[in-house]
Design goal:
- By secondary structure, this protein is α+β, with helices and mostly antiparallel strands.
- 33% of the residues lie in helices and 29% in strands.
- It is built from 13 helices and 27 strands.
- The chain has an 8-stranded antiparallel beta sheet, with helices on both faces. A 5-stranded mixed beta sheet has the order 2-3-10-4-8, with no helix packed on it. Strands 23, 24, 25, 26 and 27 form a 5-stranded antiparallel beta sheet that branches.
- The longest helix has 51 residues.
- The protein is globular.
- 38% of the residues are buried.
Length: 546
């Protein structure tokens, strides 16, 4: 999938002894979005934006070593006659000693002559290394300006980590002008280095340059056009994150020192074999306990009691990605953890006062957001017509940010319809769910509408579910409707076999539990989303209720 950006020049940084001005260059092809403000909380913003950079460059995929050269060397070693080598060793040792002394003198002489070359080569390597870092920023970060805050979003290289930094207007002072909207900004490794120079005694101005939207015809060279060909999985991952954030989760708070202790254990120990999980032991009224596998090291969090109603144990993987949070520990008031379940995604929301940092982690590092986390299939699926969807989106756009309940009351619509429409726009990349404030926000991920049919998961299971419906192979056996949930049981005939799916839907139209007798569900449960038989049962029940 190709994205075309046009920037008026590049992001610029002007620095003096007393002040620093950072001017982001926005995409001129998008609707005017700009912001000009002076940082009030310099150091906290520096640490938070640096943590966002750590998300961008994160790539923890396993990279196996190439052992081809070693195997060739090993094969040659087996052909050597070691008895003959042993006999010749004593005679050769004396000759080697003499030659070694002569070679050392020659090497010293050669090094003195080539010292300028080596110095220049090292400088060139450092220069190339800095330039290569720009390739990490495959997808320029997305900046959104809203009436209450400015927030940055990014995705990691391995597509398993998502970062969002929200900064309220209390972080800034002397805000001169802004226009709400979403845009991509030109971002590079050099800009990260400049962020490290932010100090409390220096005035720092952050500017999404509004002049980038001025019309110019005489200076075409001032515009830089960038074309980026991104894999579908990258864009699909962005669409998945907000759907996952809107699902029910186990929630509790951790003190910053608890996050420090977790990172400390991971720094001091390195696993050489599995299991590599991390278990959260949660008992009502007791401190949260974290156990690290395979060493069974337990970290007790005495400052962080679990306030839930039921005891549970949740196991997560990909724990070393938590090192991204280390820079936030000195400035964080608390970390709110949202766990979707064992092997499911987790979210860590750092409370930074007037800022918040959200780190979203997929179930494990190799399980990226786009391929094995079909969370939009478990999101609200209420059938809402296109006209009503447009009314709901336009209503949200009036305020830019709002809860589903408030939007439903203001538009005089049912909460179920509003959630269904917002879920559809979330999957289309036009709305995002803010986990920190529990609200929906307008956020246009791209300038043009995304090709949803192409991005919607490589969705063989949902296609199969629709096929079952068209063949009238789905039958709803029982419906148990209570005040809190809806329990369905049924049968799905797939060729010569008959499967027995069942599922539980909460009042927000989300799947919270499901079972099926098919092999795919027995192996994966809900870790990779519901199977086609569960989806077909849900769709059939929705049709019968129309």
């Amino acid at each position: 999938m190709e994205f075309n950006y046009t920037y008026k020049g590049s992001t610029a940084v002007s620095e003096s002894g007393k002040s620093t001005q950072m001017s982001f260059s926005p995409d001129t092809k998008r609707p005017p979005t700009y912001f000009i403000g002076e940082l009030r909380q310099n150091v906290a913003f520096r640490e938070a934006i640096s943590a966002l950079h750590d998300v961008v460059v994160s790539d923890m995929r396993f990279k196996p070593k190439d052992k081809t050269a070693y195997k060739e060397w090993r094969a040659k070693q087996e052909e050597i006659n070691w008895d003959l080598v042993t006999a010749m060793r004593q005679d050769v040792a004396a000759k080697i000693k003499t030659l070694q002394e002569e070679l050392t003198a020659l090497n010293n002489q050669s090094y003195q002559r080539l010292r300028p070359y080596y110095k220049a080569r090292d400088e060139f390597r450092r220069y190339v290394w800095q330039k290569q870092l720009d390739f990490y920023f495959v997808f320029d970060p997305v900046i959104t300006v809203h009436p209450d805050e400015v927030f940055f979003e990014c995705f990691s290289v391995d597509e398993s980590s998502y970062g969002r930094l929200g900064a309220s207007y209390e972080v800034f002072k002397n805000i001169s002008e802004f226009a709400c909207g979403t845009t991509n900004v030109d971002y590079s490794a050099a800009l990260y280095d400049e962020f490290q120079k932010v100090r409390s005694y220096k005035t720092t101005q952050l500017q999404v340059d509004p002049s980038g939207f001025e019309v110019q015809t005489t200076n075409e060279a001032a515009y830089k056009e960038v074309k980026i060909d991104l894999p579908d999985s990258w864009v699909r991952g962005f669409l998945q994150v907000s759907s996952a954030m809107s699902l029910p989760a186990t929630r509790f708070d951790l003190h910053p020192m608890d996050i420090h202790n977790i990172c400390f254990v991971l720094r001091r120990h390195k696993e050489k074999q599995g299991p590599r999980g991390m278990r959260y032991h949660l008992k009502p009224g007791e401190p949260v306990r974290v156990v690290f596998e395979p060493w069974e090291i337990e970290v007790v969090c005495p400052r962080s009691p679990y306030l839930g109603n039921e005891p549970q144990t949740i196991r997560v993987w990909g724990r070393r990605r938590l090192h991204i949070l280390e820079r936030l520990i000195p400035i964080a008031k608390k970390f709110t953890v949202h766990l979707l379940g064992t092997g499911m995604p987790s979210f860590y929301v750092a409370d930074l006062g007037d800022m918040s940092f959200t780190l979203g982690l997929s179930g494990w590092t190799a399980n990226d957001w786009s391929q094995s986390g079909n969370f939009d299939l478990m999101a609200p699926r209420a059938d809402v017509d296109e006209w009503t969807q447009k009314i709901i989106f336009d209503g949200l756009r009036e305020n830019w940010v709002e809860t589903a309940e408030c939007l439903a009351r203001r538009l005089n619509l049912s909460r179920t319809s509003v959630l269904g429409a917002l879920s559809a726009y979330t999957q289309a990349g036009r709305v995002i769910y803010d986990l920190n404030k529990q609200v929906y926000r307008v956020r246009e991920l791209s300038r043009e509408p995304l090709p949803i049919e192409r991005l919607r998961f490589a969705n063989e299971r949902e296609e199969a579910a629709i096929r079952f419906l068209s063949q009238r192979a789905v039958q709803v056996i029982s419906v148990n409707n209570s005040s809190d949930s809806l329990v369905l049981q049924g049968t799905v005939k797939d060729k010569v076999k008959t499967y027995n799916p069942s599922l539980t839907i909460d009042r927000d139209e989300r799947i919270i539990n499901a079972e099926c007798t098919c092999n795919w569900h027995q192996q994966n449960k809900l870790y990779k989303g519901p199977c086609e038989h569960i989806l077909a049962l849900r769709m059939q029940q929705a049709r019968q209720c129309r």
